[in-house]
Specification:
- With 313 residues, the protein is mainly alpha-helical.
- It has three domains: 130 residues, Serine Threonine Protein Phosphatase 5, Tetratricopeptide repeat (Alpha Horseshoe); 55 residues, no CATH class; 106 residues, Tetratricopeptide repeat domain (Serine Threonine Protein Phosphatase 5, Tetratricopeptide repeat).
- Helices cover 73% and strands 0% of the residues.
- It has 17 helices and no strands.
Length: 313
């Protein structure tokens, strides 16, 4: 029964990740209260295989995780969470064609789910393509899907792409708010191009290298009262290097210390999407996620991430 409860806490935590858009605050799910209800919906075989898949994925045995998930797929062919987990596992195993197939299936089952779209966007990006190349395979004209896509592009620093997506949507407060942010960022970029000389640009490129950013971020982490500066610096680093997991971690770290725990959770979970074979950084991310979930009174998720921390790193 203990394993079943652990499984359900993990499963429900994944199954109920909300379809985020930039105008919505993530709703808290009371996993503990839902566990007993959902226990009846899945067979022992399904629970055992799904739980084992999560375990194997957590220790980076992706082939084994995939095999367990495929058995779950056989038992529950229409289960969107299984499709989503298969997409992520195949992606981590560097099998992006299969990953894309399952990511499309998950997104088609829930087009307004932010993280299903985020995962698919990451997978197609690794293959040098864009979501637009799949518009005949997904409900691309869904308004919420497009809002989510614009938000993803904005966070990745793809400002023109984000603006192009927004222009295909009807006017709304959500659209106008994000469009204003994008235009502000574009104006700042244009202003910098007009005022910075070639020499200063070269010097700036050197000072803003990945390693230099890391050094400056670590320095601010050690300073008392440097959290607001840390938030600004990590945002700058992410704008320049949107696929660096360390900068997502550092930004989540700073947001946690500014009591913006839900924003921190969003960035820290993105950090895990980009993370590959870095146990020490993974431990730091899990610790921040545990702290953030504790701060918003979700002990089950807090303990789940705390249990993922591997000693000795």
């Amino acid at each position: 029964m203990k394993n079943e409860c652990i499984f359900l806490l993990l499963f429900l935590g994944i199954n109920f990740v909300p379809a985020l858009s930039y105008a919505q605050e993530e709703n808290e799910i009371r996993v503990e209260e839902s566990a007993e209800v959902f226990l009846e919906d899945y067979s022992d075989d399904f629970q055992e295989n799904f739980f084992e898949a999560l375990k194997q994925k957590g220790i980076q045995n992706y082939d084994r995780a995939i095999n367990f998930l495929l058995e779950c797929k056989r038992l529950q062919p229409e289960n969107k969470v299984v499709a989503y987990e298969l997409a992520k596992s195949y992606h981590l195993d560097k099998k992006n064609i299969l990953a894309q197939e399952y990511a499309i299936e998950a997104l088609n089952s829930e087009p307004e789910n932010y993280w299903y779209l985020h995962t698919l966007n990451t997978i197609v990006g690794k293959q040098g393509n864009t979501i637009r190349s799949l518009e005949n395979l997904i409900p691309y004209n869904n308004a919420v899907l497009k809002e989510n896509l614009a938000q993803i592009y904005f966070k990745d620093g793809k400002l023109e792409a984000a603006l192009a997506v927004l222009k295909t949507l009807e006017s709304s407060k959500n659209r106008m708010d994000l469009e204003q942010k994008i235009n502000d960022s574009l104006q700042k970029k244009d202003a910098n191009k007009q005022t910075v000389s070639y020499t200063a640009t070269a010097r700036n490129n050197t000072s803003n290298s990945i390693e230099n950013y890391k050094m400056r971020i670590k320095g601010l982490m050690k300073m008392n009262g440097g959290n607001l500066g840390l938030v600004q610096l990590t945002e700058e680093a992410l704008e320049s290097y949107p696929s660096q997991p360390y900068f997502y971690y550092a930004s989540g770290y700073a947001l946690n210390r500014n009591k913006k725990h839900r924003d921190a959770i969003e960035l820290l979970e993105v950090a895990l999407d980009y993370l590959i074979n870095d146990i020490a950084l993974a431990n730091k991310i899990y610790k921040e996620l545990s702290d953030a979930y504790s701060a918003i009174s979700n002990p089950s998720k807090a303990n789940m991430y705390l249990s993922k921390i591997k000693p000795g790193f």
